[in-house]
Amino acid sequence: MFESEQKEAEQQIYLYLKERDIPAPETFQWGNVPFEGEWGMSTSLFQTAALEARSGKRVNVPERAQEIAQELAAHIGKRRSFSRVEAVRGYLNLYFDTGEFSRKVIAKVLEQRRDFGKGVPKDEQVMVEFSQPNTHKAFHVGHLRSAILGDAVCRIMAFAGYDIVRANFFGDIGLHVIKWLWNYMNHHAGEKPPADTTRWMGDLYAEAIRRLEENPDLEEEVRELYARWDRRDPEVVALWQKTRQWSLDGFDDMYEILDIHFDRLYSNSDAEEMGKEIVSELIKKGIAEDLRPGGAVVVHIDDLLKLDKEKYRVLVALRSDGTALYATLDLALAKMKFAEYDLTKSIYVVDVRQTLHFQQAWKTLEIAGYEWAERCEHLSYELVNLPGNVVMASREGTVVLLEDLIREATARALEVVEEKNPSLMKEIKQSVAQTVGLGAIKYPMLARDNTKIVTFDWEAALDFNGQAAPYIQYAHVRANSILRRVHGLQPNPVAPSHDLEPAEVDLIERISQLPNEVQRAAEDRKTLHITNAAYELARSFNRFYKQCPVLDAPHEIRKFRLTLVAAARQAIANALNLLGIEAPPVM
RNA sequence: GCCCUGGUAGCUCAAUUUGGACAGAGCGAGGCUCUCCUAAAGCCUAGGUUGUGGGUUCGAAUCCCGCCCAGGGUACCA
User: CATH: 3.40.640.10, 2.60.120.10, 3.40.630.10, 3.40.50.620. Which one for A130-396?
Assistant: First the structure.
């Protein structure tokens, strides 16, 4: 927003240094002055002083940096585009006219509304594949991270200017499905799924595992069923199709509650055949080694690349019995994606344990001559564990089901609404509880670095205070509650007539940062930048709310502050929207 | 063995484009603020040798090397 001022300042600095024969660094890095009540930009002179030191002069770098900064401050201080100029501990701080800055920021938000923070279209199509649940299994909190993270990354990247294709990849075949079918045929034949389908599917799967553990002899029956499936026995296929749909319908319900949608659905079963074709092709090209029937089909990637140290190791492309495994499918899936879309990137939101598998699959495709393979990117994230670093696993019984979490969170949220705002209408309370409960679930999955393990515990999940989604939602509600009382907002924001309070300047600064954070989050694929921005925005607003009366303020101040509140409400709503979290009007 | 990730306040996490201003929040602890736009809030206090030992640098949580701890991956699981 102040690029021209920055350029001019830089020119003046270079000129000044040149005149005095002081060696100048190639670039100056500009940052914001740590907030002290006014908005400004800042650069350090340490580099400049260090250059002098290296050129032979005996100088104390911090002292010299401060000296140069002082000289520059005196020099630049005469200019009018800065309201104030100072030198502090080796930093040159240039302060803007806060009034004009404020007006610019607010005007921009109120003009762009929902688009405030949006980047210019980049003309790049990017596919983001995420969630990838297995059919015939439960959907637990461990599965939630990919879904929530992937959704938010899509929202952020789309807002940043990418053309995003949202993809899902269902695990609808494999041993787990056969075990489920076996249990169903023998003990639940003809049963229809109840209302909470996904839980029931998961229960039947857990039951299958239990029966097989209690009586290992039954494994034989499962193998027979697998063989029937492989022959495409019509009865088995029909049952598979029907039950698979039950799972998919259950997932649909959950995605709807979570407000997550997909543009393109893939299934393991879609990729199976093409995967096998690619493997034959790899064998023909001499890339893969066919050790069947004694061994599997393998690719010695390190040898093919002539690497001395082991890096990609060995990819198993096909089982010795000729059946497909995960790697087989991934070869095909990548190809399908690039055949169908013109992608500059194909992102896979999958947990960190699969890093090597992806590198193997994509490197193999690269060796096979598919030049798009290098455009595949693994967005890896750490797991969601239970306290004590206990991994969630259906067969261990260490899972928290999504349905249970949503139910508990909304129930808890409803309790709080009843207590805080009993006069709300019943339906509104319900919807608030849903909004707050879901926000509280999503936020912790998004508010930490992708490389950090999320530890799920009920107490923290149901604590709506402090650094959490409800705090941000509440700030939005407060802004809304002020604006509800006025009719017709001043259409053209004007510069404030009063000296801005620190809380006002801080809030304006936070608002102005949102567009940068969107770009940064999109580039780094880090939702953390947006949760931080949203939280800081809410915090600034809450402080402003406490310190600066709006409706009771003198006329001119009131006019200005109303536009600021409207801008803040918009910025908070936009940030929450990027996270897939709703911004409620009341709560 | 080899590879990857993490280790920051009692707990959960940050740290502004990657080396710069006094390492910041929340929870928890102690205290304060509702005749005032929703107190799901705000304010104050206490709490740190950034796992550890070296190195590079004017300057290190951040870069390099060693070590310790935790987790993950490592040919037919996904």
Answer: 3.40.50.620
